Amino acid sequence: MPLLNGQYKDLKLGEKGEKLFIKYINDNYDEKYTIKKTVRKYETYDFNIYENDELIGFWELKTRRVKYDTYSSIMVGYNKLKLMEKYQKKLNCRIYFLCYDKLMYWECKDVMGKQKDEWFIKKVYLSKRKISNTNVCIKREYLKEETDIICTKIIMSNFQNQTAIKTMDNIDLDFLPDSEDEC
Questions:
Q1: pTM (2 decimals)?
Q2: Are 63 and 72 in contact (CB under 8 A)?
Q3: Which of 89, 140, 135, 144 lies closest to 111 in space, CA to CA?
Q4: Are 162 and 179 in contact (CB under 8 A)?
Q5: What single-letter DSSP state applies at residue 165?
Q6: Contact (Cβ atoms closer than 8 angstroms) between residue 138 and residue 73
């Protein structure tokens, strides 16, 4: 089934966000940590995290077309939370949100226990009777700031038809394509 135009744009936005995220993590984390994109295209999470070649966690990245404080919560698929709940005691499980102005994250430590007040379920309906998707909304006050990214608009440039900005604090963006066609 071919992607609709909006789905294609979302996919390309996510791919650009992943490139930026990998570059940021590799440039700013200790060399003993390595981030690798998951092999399967539609894996439940995006990245495996290794310390000295030993798997220590997995992270999910959601790229959003908003400033981090636009809404009181930020949405992610319920399947992500369920998977992280399963591994949270053994591995470092995080969901990152790359917004216009910040890179934020939520660390899953005790999802169904102490962290239960940090999120709520939102069902998305196709019709009055049929549920299309079940999502989790993580309350904004529980997100932690990874870094203040001043110019993440390089990723968002096509969304608002703005000129791509090619500078960002502490991050070299030369590896990113100049246009969506080069992705």
A1: 0.74
A2: no
A3: 89
A4: no
A5: P
A6: yes
Q: 28-56 burial, b if ≥16 CB within 10 A, otherwise e?
A: eeeeeebbeeeeeeeeebbbbbeeeeeee
Calculated CA dihedral for residues 103, 43, 138, 85, nearest 10 degrees: -120
Query: Average pLDDT, stretch 50-76?
Result: 89
The answer, yes or no, to whether residue 166 has pLDDT greater than 70, is no
Classify burial at 88, counting beta carbons within 10 Å of its beta carbon; exposed 0-12, middle 13-18, buried 19 or more. Answer: buried
pLDDT in tens, 109-130: 888 888 888 888 887 766 666 6
Cβ-based neighbour number of residue 110 at 10 Å = 12
Mean pLDDT of 53-76: 89
Q: Quickly list DSSP for 66-119.
A: S-TTSSSEEEEEHHHHHHHHHHTTTSEEEEEEE-SSEEEEEEESSTTTGGGGGE
Query: Helix (H, G, I), strand (E, B), or coil: what is residue 53?
Result: coil
